[in-house]
Amino acid sequence: MNCATHMEKASALAPVPPMAVEPLDMRADTEAALARVVRVFGAARPHRAYLFANRRANRMKVLVHDGIGIWLAARRLHQGKFIWPKDAAPTLSLNHPQFDALMLGLPWQRVGEAGVICVL
Prior knowledge:
Number of domains: 1
Number of strands: 5
Number of helices: 3
Helix content: 25-40%
Radius of gyration: 15 Å
Distance between the termini: 43 Å
Largest sheet: 3 strands, antiparallel
Shape: globular
Structural class: alpha+beta
């Protein structure tokens, strides 16, 4: 089995992190982000990640509970912005192709079934 096949299997098994729709102040430290996770998602579950974006949606933070501790990572786009939902439920779940598109700054809403054209 080659490396690409291993990567495909790993991504197929890993859960996609849920998104919090409400913006997060990017100055938030680990404790503030953890408090937001508990408030929005009910709990920080082991082996899970949680996604947040700032108001302008050009920065994203991910809080991860790895089963031993909590860590917080950030990503910033130098140009453009992440496509982040507005006026939706407090949280949103994505599938793997949508998550991959989001990480690249692409319009994830058009990936998969949402991109099917039914009317000419």
